[in-house]
What we know:
The complex is a heterodimer. The mean pLDDT of chain A is 96. Chain A is globular, with a radius of gyration of 17 Å. In chain A, strands 1-2-3-5-4 form a five-stranded parallel sheet, sandwiched between helices. Chain A has one domain (5-266): Rossmann fold (3-Layer(aba) Sandwich). Helices cover 40% and strands 11% of the residues of chain A. Chain A contains nine helices and five strands. Chain A is α/β, with parallel strands linked by helices. Chain A has helices at residues 5-26, 31-48, 72-81, 122-136, 154-166, 186-189, 195-201, 214-222, 257-266, and strands at residues 63-66, 142-147, 171-177, 205-210, 229-234. In chain A, helix 2 (31-48) runs parallel beside helix 3. In chain B, the strands form three sheets. Chain B has a seven-stranded mixed sheet with strand order 3-2-4-5-7-6-12, with helices on both faces. In chain B, strands 9-11-10-13-14 form a five-stranded mixed sheet, with helices on both faces. In chain B, helix 2 (42-47) links the parallel strand 2 (28-32) and strand 3. In chain B, helix 1 packs parallel to helix 7, helix 3 (59-71) runs parallel beside helix 5 (90-99) and helix 8 (204-217) packs across helix 12. The chains are: A alpha/beta, B alpha/beta.
Amino acid sequence: MSMDTQQISDLAREIRIQILHTIKGAGMGHIGGDFSVTDILATLFGSVLNVDPKDPNKSDRDRIILSKGHAAVALYSTLASCGFFPVEDLKTFAKPLSNLNGHPNRNKVPGVESNTGPLGHGFPIAVGTAIGAQLAKNGSRSFVIMGDGELQEGSNWEAAMFAGHRKLTNLIAVIDRNGFQQGSPTSKTNELDPLDKKFESFGWEVRVVDGHDYVALHKALIDPQTKPRVVIAQTTKGKGVDFMEGKAEWHHKVPTTEQYEAALMQLGKQ
Amino acid sequence: MSEKLEEFDNRIIFAKTLITLANEDSKIVVVCNDSVGSSNLTEFRDLFPDRLIDVGIAEQNMVGVAAGLANAGFTPFVCAAAPFLTGRALEQIKADVVYTRTNVKLCGMSPGIAYGELGPTHHSIEDIAWMRALDSLPIVLPADEAQTAEAVRWAANMVGPVFMRIGRYKVPSVSQGQSPAFIPNKAMRIIDGSDITIIATGTLVSRAVVAAAELKAEGISARVINLSTVSPLDTVEILAAAKETKAIITAEESVTRGGVGGAIAEFVVQNHPVPMKLIGIDSFAPTGSTTFLLEHFGLTADSIVSSARELLKHGK
Lengths: 270, 316
């Protein structure tokens, strides 16, 4: 899809509303991280990725791996909003025997590339898909979306080192830098900064952008590369609903009916 | 049995077979962890430099990269020392390969106590138990050259994950020209017998054959089964052993708890209980060569023979 900024904005709003409905309906989900990653997903699916909802396994597709698998509802809402499966299916999220598990399953959900959930898994896989695309010479690009807290897993740095060594110009890592991990700020738990210098020293090009600015995100995701690129997307956990924004407790809190209605109002639809 | 049979390092036929397969199929790639030498892959690298991806000493990345290559349409053979492949990257094996059902071939090189004096950190005696716990992961333990070649070819042609052990400790041929030497999902009955059954894997198969000959001299008819596929278990052959012979001995170069012996005992106890003896490794090894340690843990023909005598005495 090649959406303009307004269309991406509309898509992002639609995704957020689906996230809100889905989590409220299921009584579970990671709403804070879903909202922080929404604009990244909307930009990728709306204007960057070469993917086809009607042919989700075509061999030369771009690969998008959501390493922060706990944001499954954001991915499901994006895939449904983009036509990979019916929006109606979102109502089954987390219900017994649903295809939509708390973490995504490639063999059950069109558009999912790998069964993520344990953190630090998506990055090595994206390095593998990027190397595979180079061997196949099919022009496919690989994108991995990680949470920032997730970068505390050592496997990511194995992948970062190897991608830098291989100078993978068809790989982009996007960090959803919302500053929080499950219970507290990343800076209080295990400091990640200077994140840019860490990646630079591993042979990466670093772009730091506002993770809710579609134009900045789009440019960082499509500019030509001479080495692997990390896009450190500065985001706000719970983005879009003022009483959730920047609050650690909204990592996986479920809104009450009043909060749900207030959130819907803010997201622009009754 | 004093005549010494010619013995083979299965890594050599493994590497040769991979090269043959790679010539036939451009999708075959190798992923390794600084293990080109120990996996005997130098020739493969020279022939297909782009198709050997050496991630360095980084097993989690190695398995993740392999899962990504499979997603991209390739058939990666991950070649790494078995203890580090299965121990360090266990969660990647579980989530990225087995749960995601990616077409990754996990080749645990130099398994069991092949690294002798290097000690328990380098021994891979838990791998079978760990891999067995994963849902629907085929586990293949070729016992000799012919089985290794055929099992590798089978793995390349089937779609889905596989774990196989590729031994470095030299073993004689047990297939003896039998064709096919390896049948997937099938236990190979290599000697028939009616008193007792010895179910052996990998390095222990040739020792079971020697034991059967010694037992025969004592008037005991021992059946020998080469269990080259541990998962899925050939329950037909094992049930026949339980019904047609009086007792079962299992023999493996790994821990029996959760290992091959554990797998067979789980089935036998629920379907046709008979007396059993599980021969394997029960603890971290002391210092010693592989040959020494095989003796130390009773992974020998003599040990199988004495176990058979004991079981049959009890069985009377």
